[in-house]
Specification:
This is Putative DNA-binding domain-containing protein. The protein is mainly alpha-helical. Helix content is 50%, strand content 11%. It has 10 helices and 7 strands. The longest helix is centred in the first third of the chain and has 17 residues.
Length: 236
C-alpha cells in the first residue's frame, strides 16, 4: 500500500512544500510560529536540563535556527530530538558546555523508548546459576560531569570523563550508574558471547578479574544492570 504522501496529487505536494518553505523562511508566518512553538516544546520535553540551563531565549533561537534549516515539511515529534541533536552538533546554536549534557539527555530518551523489555519472570532473583547477559537497554557512555547533579544545578562543573551505564529497569525507571574499569571489562567480555554463566565468564576473563566475577554478577542482577538470558523480551 502506498503512503498518503506518495498518492497525493503533485499540486497538493507543491502547495505543502511551499507552505513549509514559507514557514522556514518567515518566523512571523502563522504556520511558522506554530512549527517553532512545537519544536521548542519538543526540545524542552526531550532535553529538560539543557532547556533549563540554556534559558528560554536560547531555546527559542535554537528552535528557530533548526526550523529554518530543517528539510522536512512535517517533522514528526519523535524524530525531532534526534535530528535536533545532529543539528546542534554541527551548528553553534547552543553553548559548548551544554553539548555533553544534551547528548546525555538524548541517551536517556533512547533508553526510555527502546523497544526491548525485560520479562517479570524471576524478577529480583540474584541466583546466578543460569546464563546472564547485559540489560538489553544498556548504553555505556563517557560523561565529563556528574549526572547525579544534573537536576539540582543550573550549570555543571567539568570533571574527568568517567564511564556510566544507562539502562531501563523492569519498573520502567531509567537509571544511570557509574562504572569501574572492571565493570567495563566484564561487560565487554560478557557481550562478546551475548550470554554466559558465572563459571563461563570466570574462565574467559583475565586472572586478575576472576575473584570479582561471582559478586559482580550478583550485584549486577540486583541492580538490573544484568539479567538472566531467558528474561530478555523484545516486545512491550
Amino acid at each position: 500500500m502506498r503512503s498518503p504522501d506518495a498518492a497525493a496529487p503533485a499540486r497538493l505536494r507543491e502547495e505543502v512544500a511551499g507552505l513549509a518553505g514559507q514557514a522556514r523562511r518567515d518566523p512571523s508566518d502563522l504556520y511558522g510560529q506554530l512549527l517553532r512553538e512545537n519544536v521548542a516544546g519538543a526540545i524542552r520535553s526531550s532535553f529538560p536540563a539543557v532547556a533549563r540551563m540554556a534559558g528560554k531565549a536560547v531555546v527559542v533561537r535554537a528552535a528557530d535556527a533548526f526550523v529554518a534549516a530543517h528539510p522536512a515539511s512535517r517533522p514528526q515529534f519523535h524524530q525531532i530530538a534526534t535530528e535536533f541533536v545532529l543539528f546542534v552538533q554541527g551548528q553553534p546554536v547552543l553553548p559548548s558546555a551544554l553539548m555533553p549534557i544534551i547528548e546525555y539527555e538524548w541517551v536517556l530518551l533512547q533508553v526510555e523508548i527502546d523497544p526491548a523489555a525485560l520479562s517479570d519472570d524471576a524478577a529480583g532473583s540474584t541466583d546466578a546459576a543460569g546464563p546472564v547477559t547485559a540489560n538489553p537497554t544498556l548504553r555505556v557512555v563517557m560523561l565529563p560531569f556528574d549526572p547525579a547533579l544534573i537536576d539540582a544545578n543550573d550549570s555543571l562543573k567539568p570533571a574527568p570523563p568517567r564511564p556510566h551505564g544507562v539502562y531501563r529497569t523492569r519498573e520502567h525507571h531509567v537509571l544511570t550508574r557509574p562504572l569501574t574499569v572492571s565493570d567495563c571489562l566484564l561487560l565487554d567480555r560478557l557481550e562478546q558471547e551475548e550470554a554466559m554463566t558465572s563459571r563461563g565468564l570466570a574462565e574467559a576473563v583475565e586472572p586478575s578479574l576472576l575473584p570479582l566475577v561471582p559478586d559482580w554478577i550478583g550485584q549486577g542482577l540486583a541492580k538490573q544492570l544484568l539479567v538472566f538470558a531467558d528474561q530478555k523480551d523484545t516486545s512491550r
